[in-house]
Specification:
This protein is of the alpha+beta class and about 350 residues long. It is built from 17 helices and four strands. Strands 1-3-4-2 form a four-stranded mixed sheet, with helices on both faces. A hairpin with a 6-residue loop joins strand 3 and strand 4. The relative contact order is 0.11.
């Protein structure tokens, strides 16, 4: 375990074995680094601290025993990502999941039951089936047809860990299953970049939720990623609700109406246009004209974006891990110092939050 973590942290830092050996204090040889990574030798406590500081990871990460491996990794990325970037993302996720699982163990929390039941499939006959599956999941979770206030909170409530992290620029997020070293059931994790706008963040979370329900299409005529996007759109913007809001079989739509709808459902303007076409409110020809004209820049520049702290932006962030840390601290199951380590906050901030306002 230590060797795997050391190798991952070294790749994240973009260092060769020799470069790491030259940088760490106290000094070690490249041969020693090689033996550490091959699990043939363990470093002394002083070298372990030096490796942690040099690589910018915690000792808990290097010695962590909760996460054995990340399985089925699916990156939401742009072109041009490097192996170093991917290693950095894996290291960030592994460290955060270690903390998440540790606080759950401290509180002795029991994982929730499978939230999907018999809805999970690996065969899709038509793209319309994807719409039906999104509707069925909403029904199973008793969500009704109204817009979802927080996809992050919804997924966390269903046992999917949502992590927001400072990812490299070319990554919007990732999803994976975490195999635990203690033999406990795998844990599903979805990660989003803290630089992603609210609209894209919500769609990414819905897209990754789709992967939990539709494992494969079993149909060469249906692209899996397009099916995931269709599910995400249908889950965030139910067709029946949209028709009531916008009307059926429209000939056109004003900019004002589009902006109102995107803010109503918390999706991007592009996703809103696609959804209007998918439920036959606007024709394919109208949508194609939009992307050739007034909407041609919307894929790179979001019109009338949802602001952080306003509307959906006030709720669309993962909060469960932070809540669990404060719970454990309030129950005196962890120390203020440990809480500060978990939350990456100064101990003075933790102590102030414990005491409350002072006269």
């Amino acid at each position: 375990m230590f060797g795997q973590r050391l190798r991952l942290a070294r790749k994240k830092a973009g260092l060769s074995m020799q470069a790491l050996a030259d940088s760490v204090i106290p000094k070690v040889s490249a041969q020693a680094i090689s033996k550490y990574e091959a699990e043939k030798m363990m470093p002394s406590s002083a070298v372990l601290v030096g490796l942690s500081k040099t690589l910018g990871v915690s000792i808990d990460f290097l010695m962590g025993g909760q996460v054995e491996t990340l399985k089925g990794i699916e990156f939401r990325k742009h072109s041009g990502t490097s192996a170093r970037d991917r290693a950095k993302v894996e290291a960030i996720v592994t460290e955060k999941v270690e903390d998440y699982l540790a606080i759950e163990d401290i509180l002795e929390l029991v994982p929730p039951a499978n939230p999907f039941g018999d809805l999970v499939t690996d065969e899709i006959e038509s793209i319309e089936d994807v719409e039906d599956m999104a509707r069925a999941l909403r029904e199973k979770w008793l969500l009704g047809l109204d817009p979802i206030p927080s996809m992050s909170a919804l997924l966390e409530d269903k046992g999917i860990k949502v992590i927001e992290a400072d990812l490299p620029d070319r990554f919007d997020g990732m999803a994976c299953d975490v195999k635990r070293s203690d033999g406990k059931p795998d844990t599903a994790v979805v990660v989003v970049s803290n630089r992603t706008n609210v609209e894209r963040k919500r769609f990414t979370l819905a897209h990754e939720l789709a992967h939990r329900v539709i494992r494969a299409t079993g149909n060469p005529g249906i692209n899996l990623e397009k099916a995931m996007n269709r599910f995400a759109g249908a889950f965030l913007v139910p067709g029946e609700h949209l028709i009531k809001e916008a009307g059926a079989h429209r000939h056109g739509m004003t900019y004002h109406e589009l902006v109102r709808l995107k803010h109503l459902y918390g999706v991007s303007a592009v996703a809103m246009l696609m959804r209007l076409m998918q439920v036959d409110i606007l024709s394919k020809a109208v949508i194609e004209y939009a992307f050739r004209s007034y909407a041609r820049t919307w894929r790179v520049e979001e019109p009338e974006p949802i602001r952080n702290g306003e509307g959906f932006g006030a709720f669309e962030r993962p909060q469960r891990f932070e809540r669990l840390v404060w719970w454990a601290l309030g129950e005196h199951l962890i120390s203020p110092v440990r809480a500060a380590q978990f939350l990456r906050l100064p101990i003075s901030t933790i102590e102030q939050e414990i005491r409350g306002p002072q006269d």
